[in-house]
Amino acid sequence: MMKKRLIPFLSIIALTILCVLIFIQHSKRANTTSRPTVAITSIRNPISVINFTDITKKKLPLDLFFQGYILSRDVLIATKNDCKNIYSYNVKNGSINIIASVSNSKDFIKTITCNSEWIVWVENEVLIDDTSNKPFKWQMIAQNISSGKKHIIDKSSFISNKYKVPMFINYTPDKLSIYNNTLVYCKTEPNSLKVKTELIKYEIDSNKKNIITSTNDVMNEMIADCSLYDNTIVWSKYKEINNNYEVRLTQYRFSDLFIYDLNTKIQKQLTFNDFFHNPSIFKDKIAAVKIPLKKANQNACNSEVVLINLTNNQVQTIVDENSLCYDKIENELYRCDPTLNGKYLTWNNNVFNSTCIYNYNTNKFINLTKVDENPLIINRIYAMYDNYVLLYKTSDQQKDNESICIPLNNIQLP
User: How far apart are CA 249 and CA 239, in angstroms?
Assistant: First the structure.
């Protein structure tokens, strides 16, 4: 699976290595930036859990690692362990085809996004990232789905990885988002002896590139985690390296959300001096991860999944340690990677079972599978599309592992 940027926190759980980065400052390129437009509401947590444990499930090939994007209604994209090719997988008939390959035979595919017209990926020189010797030679490729023609969108400006930056700073872009012909991505760039970040908008068919906003030094602030829907971009900006883990277990002290309208060219800051990051936008809603202030005796990062309504400018907490989707209080659990479609919200737990999705129209959790009574077996949702949810079942002995596809149209609410 492609590696994602997360913010490391002090945890006894080795699986939680990184969380993500941080925050605030007004864009020099924005025409206007407004003061807080988002207000926290008193509405917290869905009201009930509906169990749909007998719905249709289909097993997927275990040698395919599915990405969070879809080519068409029933065609998913995936990679394999060697990260040399991108595959299409037809859920209906099980057919597997190579649809793209690395441009440089010595490179490895790191990050992918696609729609029905374009597939875009980043490739670099290593298969497994090493934070002590971070890869820095990368290129970003776009390939037209119908013609197969491809071209280079962007490539690394780094000639060395010898910069004095924190280990969690990547030199390879690790978040891409596409809508129709428009691609947005965040990247690091050399800035004399420092490293800066940029948010890029790229029109794929015309090869037009614009820098929406930037920061000068990742030691002070950093742009990451962008998401695009229609004409709106949302991203995180992180600020101030965190040297005091007594306040919050994150690498930066703050992370706030910004949006930019591609039509009006107006930028707005949604949150101020808080910690919201990892956003996903769909129409007038943004799902994001919030990391609250550290509680007494808390040893690991705890996070919440929130839903921001851009129509009424309010935030609703969807998932936290007290949510009904957990059998017990989970107050040291990193909930991340929220994804929205026209009806549902999903997220990943860094550990433990995660078998619920959230219907934001009915304000209810839906449990998609029965949790195994064996504590050594974990069922975890890891991706959602318009019409499918993907779930992985694993055990500590690596026996009887399963990758499962669940059609969402089988869910009929009472």
Answer: 14
